[in-house]
Specification:
The relative contact order is 0.13. Strand 23 (315-322) and strand 24 form a beta hairpin. This protein has one domain: 6 Propeller (Neuraminidase). The chain has strands at residues 4-8, 17-24, 30-37, 48-55, 63-69, 76-84, 90-100, 103-113, 124-125, 132-134, 141-142, 148-155, 167-173, 181-182, 200-208, 211-217, 222-228, 239-245, 252-255, 262-266, 286-291, 304-307, 315-322, 325-331, 345-351. The chain is built from no helices and 25 strands. The two termini are 16 Å apart. The strands form 6 sheets. Strands 10, 11, 12, 13 and 14 form a 5-stranded antiparallel beta sheet that branches.
Length: 354
């Protein structure tokens, strides 16, 4: 296997190809489900369905399989997470957006596959009431206890339109996704300093059985972090994580199962370690950093600068570890001149450091 880059740019009638999630199939192929926009608008709430690409050579080349989940009468479906379970089935999570009393309702949905993602069940709604609930792409986690965890940001509707600052909680299931429970803890931002956005786009990684690390997108110049010692039901007070200086953009963090090392991918803003041009966007550069001691320390001086083009933004990453390699999928649009940082999709295969 070798390093490679595959680009899926937008085109007329397809104004945006957006974030997704990988599924390593039992036959050795790799499926990638992502959000494909249609029409003219690339807005977050514009018309979009879920499409699929398949690779038969370890992520070096990709073949388009077309639309696999259609939005039906919804405005939009997006933000895919794929999660293989121990019984051999696969869960698909995504967000469905509809207009409800003049407001956009964003609801997490779930489907199940018994044949490695070739066919999917009817959609199941995970939250019974309307509102704006966000789960980023590639965020579903299966812990060592068998619990399924989904990190959620909830943005209450404002009277007259728009969204209030976000708060964070977790959804979890102990019966393979049949029933779901909300965490006892709700993580609240300091509203006086988070008045615009609050807590956004959380993610979770398991550090040890029962011990979980949660990170949160903020406007405070860092990702925030919180810990759970009971498999995601209660959480510590969130604080800035000084390892991850960051603009208001999402981070991804996963464990390489072959080495047990943790890898973080985000828009690092440490200008000493990875300097960028002053004219860069707020989602450049894209940085990969490793921890070999379960997150106690991070190899900052060995951080890899994956992307640094100041005309582009790089965000909403999906990660899949192969033997000695990491597959990354992310948005890589160009800013300015009416362009959107999320218009184009890139899948990149990189060799992991020794």
């Amino acid at each position: 296997m070798k390093e490679s880059v595959f680009d899926l740019p937008h085109s007329p009638g397809n104004p945006r190809n957006s974030e997704g999630s990988f599924l390593p199939a039992k036959d050795g192929t790799i499926r990638f489900l992502y959000t494909r926009y249609s029409g003219e608008s690339f807005d977050d709430h514009a018309a979009a369905d879920l499409a699929e690409m398949v690779s038969s050579d370890g992520g070096e080349t990709w073949k388009d399989s077309g639309i696999v989940i259609r939005r039906g009468d919804a405005k939009n479906i997006m933000s895919v997470s794929l999660l293989p379970l121990r019984d051999g089935s696969v869960l698909l999570f995504y967000l469905e957006k509809r207009l409800v009393q003049g407001q956009v309702s964003c609801i997490p949905m779930m489907r199940r596959s018994a044949d490695d993602g070739r066919h999917w069940s009817e959609a199941k709604r995970l939250i019974p009431h309307d509102g704006y609930f966000v789960i980023n792409n590639d965020r579903a986690v299966l812990t060592s206890s068998g619990r399924i965890l989904l990190p959620v940001a909830f943005h209450p509707w404002r009277i007259g339109g728009g969204l209030r600052p976000g708060i964070v909680f977790t959804l979890f299931s102990d019966d393979n996704g049949e029933t779901w429970t909300e965490s006892d803890t709700i993580l609240l931002p300091e509203l006086q300093t988070e008045a615009g956005t609050g807590f956004q786009e959380p993610g979770i990684v398991e550090l040890a059985p029962g011990k979980l690390f949660l990170w949160i997108r903020t406007v405070r110049g860092f990702q925030f972090r919180s810990l759970s010692m009971d498999d995601g039901n209660t959480w510590s007070a969130p604080v800035p994580d000084l390892n991850f200086p960051s603009p208001c953009s999402p981070m991804s963090l996963k464990r390489d199962p072959s080495t047990n090392f943790l890898y973080a991918v985000w828009n690092g803003t440490d200008r000493i370690l990875y300097p960028v041009l002053p004219a860069t966007t707020d989602r450049t550069p894209l940085v990969l950093m490793r921890s070999c001691d379960n997150g106690k320390s991070w190899e900052k001086k060995k951080a890899l600068l994956l992307e640094k083009d100041p005309r582009h933004g790089y965000c909403y990453t999906a990660m899949l570890f192969l033997e000695g390699f990491l597959l990354l999928a992310y948005c890589c649009g160009e800013s300015g001149n009416g362009r959107c940082l999320l218009e184009d999709l890139r899948i990149r295969k990189i060799a992991l450091p020794e």
